[in-house]
Amino acid sequence: MGVTERKLRQQEEMRKQIIDCSREIVHEEGWAALSIRKIADAIEYSVPVIYKYFENKEAISAYFVAEGFDLLYAQITAGISTEDSIEERFQQLGLGYYLFAEQHPKHYEIMFGLGIPTCETAKNIKSVGLLSDLFRHMIDELIQKSGRKDIDVCIKYRSLWAMLHGVVALELLSLTGSDKVCNSLILADSMRSFTKGI
């Protein structure tokens, strides 16, 4: 292996070490505890070394946001059967979204901490654009099936994000578990109500 290849491999290993350490800090202490100093101390390198790979804490957070949307898109698309009706696929979409939030709560928290993705986010993160396209195509298909001409796709698109996030917030992000209802029933009811409204 040449000098250049070795250097690139070492840089990739260091970047991975920073990401793995960041992931561990977040899982143990939460996003608020993540700092460049804490990462540097944990991997026993100086702070300037971390800055060679990530310009600031926000850049590390952005990495996890992008990774999260990649995982979310994969989770949703893996659960959708193209042979099923649009209504069934819509239920599958909702279930994939919910399962992602349940299985990856720390990713979900950083991904949606500031609201639903914007157009700018969709431009910068490929999987956000793919997810947005998937949502819009499924809404379009529901509208075509209903034959209605009075439905605004953009409003329905934002309503879908709001509904999915609302179910997750009520069921997974609540402070106590004492008032939880069967998650699958709330999710299924919400998705049915959405499709019937088109």
From TrEMBL:
Q: Does the keyword DNA-binding apply?
A: yes
Q: Which SUPFAM superfamilies match?
A: Homeodomain-like, Tetracyclin repressor-like, C-terminal domain
Query: Keywords on this record?
Result: DNA-binding, Transcription, Transcription regulation
Q: Where is the HTH tetR-type domain?
A: 12-72
**Which residue stretches, if any, does this entry annotate as coiled coil?**
none
Q: Which residues bind DNA?
A: 35-54
The record's listing under InterPro entries reads:
Homeodomain-like_sf, HTH-type_TetR-like_transc_reg, HTH_TetR, MT1864/Rv1816-like_C, Tet_transcr_reg_TetR-rel_C_sf
Checking Pfam families in the record gives:
TetR_C_33, TetR_N
Answer yes or no on keyword DNA repair.
Answer: no
Protein name per its UniProtKB record: TetR/AcrR family transcriptional regulator
Q: Which organism is it from?
A: Sphingobacterium tenebrionis
